[in-house]
Fold this sequence. Notes:
This protein is of the alpha+beta class. Helices cover 21% and strands 24% of the residues.
Amino acid sequence: MALLLASALLFAACSKNIQTTEAVQASVVEYLSGIAAKTGLDMNSMQVDVAAVSFQRDEARATVAIRPKNMAGSAAMQMTYTLDRKGDKWVVRGPGEAAGNTHGAPPPITDEKAPLPAGHPPVGSSPGGTQGALPEGHPPIGSNK
């Protein structure tokens, strides 16, 4: 029994505390660098700041501000990320893995026949109420005008 208790204490003492803003920030930067080819972001020129973070067991939720490094005081793009603890580091959940909306995207449509909000025009109608008609004076679609 004493050996088991000593082993547990040794394991607890050796495990790294990653419930820090810095650990979350490093993981988000690593994630964004990994998807830079898809997003077009040059992470060497971006400043990533964790505005808020909350921890719950092996999960972290972070609100992150991303802005160009050379534009101090510029407006930042805010993103929310969910991270999972994997060993001694955080790993950002990919968009398809998130329980919520990792990147702020709308939830997928699961019922195409769901009713529209009150007062919403029919899908596919123009503001004037005619189906498929272009506004007066609009050049034909596909023209070079």
